[in-house]
């Protein structure tokens, strides 16, 4: 990693540094080589680090949850980073994740067949039916 989040105390790669920069209220990103680091920031990084923060922010990642790697697309990595640091979905062991409540509706990004661009699609995830349905038009009502 050539970058660090001096507000989270973690070292990150170039690709993830851009995602972290898009959530400045959570993560303040600096280059390890090019930026000036204050003494308190260096101390914070030394006291925390990736392993300690992983224990904190990934304490309760469900076994079925896919953790993206550097090889995955930016959309997957961004959702992981936001779930982990912004929404703190995995920080409290024993607490149900909000999408485990039986049914979840929202928006996902689906790659278009013709031009390869990602497009917003409404989805409905149903535990009862064991299905994930997504709709081309957002205003389609579920059955």
Automatic annotation (TrEMBL):
Record-linked PANTHER family: ARF-GAP WITH DUAL PH DOMAIN-CONTAINING PROTEIN 1, ARF-GAP WITH DUAL PH DOMAIN-CONTAINING PROTEIN 1-LIKE PROTEIN
Keyword annotations: Metal-binding, Zinc, Zinc-finger
A Pfam family that the UniProt record links to this protein: ArfGap
Alphabetized InterPro entries for the sequence: Arf-GAP_dual-PH_domain, ARFGAP/RecO, ArfGAP_dom, ArfGAP_dom_sf, PH-like_dom_sf
Keyword Ligase: no
Identification of the protein by name: Arf-GAP with dual PH domain-containing protein 1
Tagged with keyword Zinc: yes
UniProt cross-references to SUPFAM superfamilies, sorted A to Z: ArfGap/RecO-like zinc finger, PH domain-like
Arf-GAP domain ranges (all copies): 1-99
Source organism superkingdom: Eukaryota
Gene behind this protein: ADAP1_3
Phylogenetic lineage: Eukaryota, Metazoa, Chordata, Craniata, Vertebrata
């Amino acid at each position: 990693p050539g970058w660090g989040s001096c507000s989270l105390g973690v070292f990150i790669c170039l690709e993830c540094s851009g995602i972290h920069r898009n959530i400045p209220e959570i993560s303040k990103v600096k280059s390890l080589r090019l930026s000036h680091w204050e003494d308190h920031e260096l101390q914070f990084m030394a006291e925390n680090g990736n392993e300690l923060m992983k224990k904190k922010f990934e304490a309760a990642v469900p076994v079925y949850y896919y953790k993206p790697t550097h090889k995955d697309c930016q959309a997957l990595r961004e959702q992981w980073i936001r779930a982990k640091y912004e929404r703190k979905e995995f920080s409290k062991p024993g607490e149900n994740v909000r999408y485990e409540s039986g049914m979840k509706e929202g928006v996902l990004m689906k790659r278009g067949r013709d031009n390869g661009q990602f497009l917003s699609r409404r989805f409905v995830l149903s535990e009862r039916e064991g299905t994930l349905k997504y709709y081309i038009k957002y205003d389609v009502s579920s059955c």
